[in-house]
Amino acid sequence: MIPRSVRFALSGISWPVYVLLYTPLALVAYYSFAPAPNSVGHSLHAYNVLLHDGDVFVALRRSLILAFGSAIVSTALGTLLGYGLCRFRKRNAKGFLAHMPSLIIYTPIIMPSLVFGISELIFFNFVHGATGLLAAGLGTMIIAHITFQVPYVALTVFARLSGLDPYLFEASYDLYANGLKSFFYLVVPVVQPAIIGGFLLGITLSIDDFTISFFTSGPGSVTLPIYIYGAIARKGISPEINALGTLMISTIIVMALAHFFITRQRERADQLAARGNVS
Amino acid sequence: MIPPAALAMTAPAPRGAISLHRISRIFAGGIPAVDRINLDINPGEFFTLLGPSGCGKTTLLRMIAGFETPDEGRLLISGREMQDVPPHKRAVNTVFQSYALFPHLNVEQNIGFGLRMQGVKNPERKRRVDTIMELMQISPFAKRGAAQLSGGQRQRVALARALVNEPEVVLLDEPLSALDAKLRNELQIELLRMQKHLGMTFIFVTHDQHEALVMSDRIGVMSKGRIQQVGAVLDVYEKPKNVFVAEFLGLSNILVLTPTGARTAQTPLGELRVDEELNGHKLAMIRPEKIWIYNDTAAPQGRPNTFMGTVHEAIYMGASTQYRIDLGNNQFVSAYDTNNQAAERSWRPGEKVTVELKPENIMLIEP
């Protein structure tokens, strides 16, 4: 039991943390309603400017293509990798060999994205110089994003599979499923939540990423984070940037609330189902 | 009503027969888990592999299922060589110790999984799943998930999931070990009923000698990767081949013999007469329930193999009492006596008794 005084002190500390977390977000929203030029009072002027800025929408579209394109591919690859790591573990491997798979998976996650981005840049330049392929652009960005997302997806799938009864796989073989059928009729449905989780994580990571995108993008492949950075570098933080930020924050809040209500509804349905079955 | 599986059993003779020729499986470290085993299992037989944990019985079962590959030897199922046949192409289904029910499927879908993988389409598949659920009395749970079932229900679903495919052989890896005693007894009887009804070959793995005795047509007793003895239940229990089999199948009194004639030997208890010719045997055994106990006053006169002693310990077990009887010279025998009389008529520690080891009840065994 934690003493009352300590609990009180801890709850006291939590408030400044909340303030530091959410005041900046509130400020962004506040400044987005800046007055229009040559006028006073709050306005939606910045939003109006933003809506008529074609470049923003081009950048947003590119960000979404990058996010979904890379997440789809990395989900497929990461699922296979997670499955392989779990199913084909060397049972009697010792020392370095036993840790190889986790080393391969964790290294890209631990690697600073700056190092990761620069090394990707060097690699793409090298290949381009040698073969003329892989010119910097959306293509190279998608490849780079796939690369850093795969370990995250593999990890979530691996964690889910490791928690399963290992005899489930044998049971599927025993019941006339070959490797392929076992994968599609047992593994995929069972790890489906992990696959979806990995996919969503991939999209989040991709939309969020600036560093790796910055190093691997080309002249014609400006994504939203790079666009924002460029806009700030050119003319400082404008009300339009704040408006854009506010829109992104709102989208995330709406999504989080939707997730909360959907899962709560599902949990209630599950509880009801479980209760109905006790009889 | 004759279920389809019973009709399928009218196929040619070797269907469901299993033949092992010098099968070995050697794990890392060079220790053989299964060591040059020869074994023939008859079609339609309830065969039990009995042995302590680590004796190789599960490895043997897994080789028949195809999850392990023998390092040497030949394995034939229904007369067909299984060397290069993967598990999904064997007409063999397994009931796993953990049941291994698919968590993403309900009872009905779990049972139908094997048929679905074999490409059995739906009116037919549903009919067969419904029939087996009816037979196993699990129809009311058809739509439940595996997590919403009790242990006994899971066990039934796991069995139904194997049987619905009408395999030639059903492999059962300690399927009852996770259940409580009462449920285990019920399911033992039900399992036997299903096996006789469907006529499939059942290979049952257990470390529980009582379960093995109750269920099996024949038992193969295993130790250290080798089969110690194969035989009908009665033979394995009454005429064990060696000390391991004698002791694993129940309490036994082992006697060290120094032969003095063709059918007589000196033992630490005294002179002993046996029915069989000794033929160089150095050991004999007698089951505790085969030892007769008499009140000191009612002891039979002039009969061989009678010894005087004192009750050292009496363990009351309800239907019977297990006595430990001190025959002097630091020699003890264990004896069971049925409590078929009023409780006060049984013997108490310290009482003088005479025990008789009838010659026909003494079995010669190997070390």
Description of the molecule:
The complex is a heterodimer of chains A (279) and B (367). Chain A has a domain at 55-241: MetI-like fold (Orthogonal Bundle). Chain A has 11 helices and no strands. Chain A has helices at residues 4-32, 45-51, 54-87, 96-110, 113-131, 138-162, 167-174, 179-208, 211-216, 224-235, 239-278. In chain A, helix 2 crosses helix 11 (239-278). Chain B is an alpha+beta fold. Chain B has 2 domains: 4-245, Rossmann fold (3-Layer(aba) Sandwich); 251-365, OB fold (Dihydrolipoamide Acetyltransferase, E2P), CATH 2.40.50.100. Chain B has helices at residues 4-8, 57-65, 107-117, 122-135, 151-163, 181-198, 209-215, 233-238, 243-248; strands at residues 18-26, 32-41, 46-50, 72-77, 80-81, 92-95, 169-173, 201-206, 218-223, 226-232, 253-256, 258-259, 264-267, 270-273, 283-286, 292-295, 306-316, 320-326, 332-338, 352-356, 363-365. In chain B, strands 6-7-8-3-9-10 form a 6-stranded mixed sheet, sandwiched between helices. In chain B, a hairpin with a 2-residue loop joins strand 9 and strand 10 (226-232). Chain B starts with a helix and ends with a strand. Residues 5-13 of chain B have low confidence and may be disordered. The A-B interface holds A 92, 164-165, 167-168, 170-178, 181, 185-186, 189-190, 192, 274, 277 and B 28, 65-67, 86-89, 92-94, 96-98, 100, 102-104, 113-114, 116-118, 144, 148, 161, 165.
Task: Give descriptors for this structure.
heterodimer, A: mainly alpha, MetI-like fold, 81% helix, B: alpha+beta, Rossmann fold, OB fold (Dihydrolipoamide Acetyltransferase, E2P), 2 domains, six-stranded mixed sheet, 9 helices, 24% helix
Strand-and-helix sequence of chain B, N→C? Answer: HEEEHEEEHHHEHEHEEHHEEEEEEEEEEE
Domain unit count of chain B: 2
Mean pLDDT of chain B: 89
CATH superfamily of the domain at 55-241 in chain A: MetI-like
- Strand arrangement, major sheet of chain B: 6-7-8-3-9-10
C-alpha-based Rg of chain A, rounded:
24 Å
Number of E strands of chain A: 0
Low-pLDDT residue spans of chain B:
5-13
In quaternary terms, these chains amount to heterodimer
Task: Work out the helix count of chain B.
Answer: 9
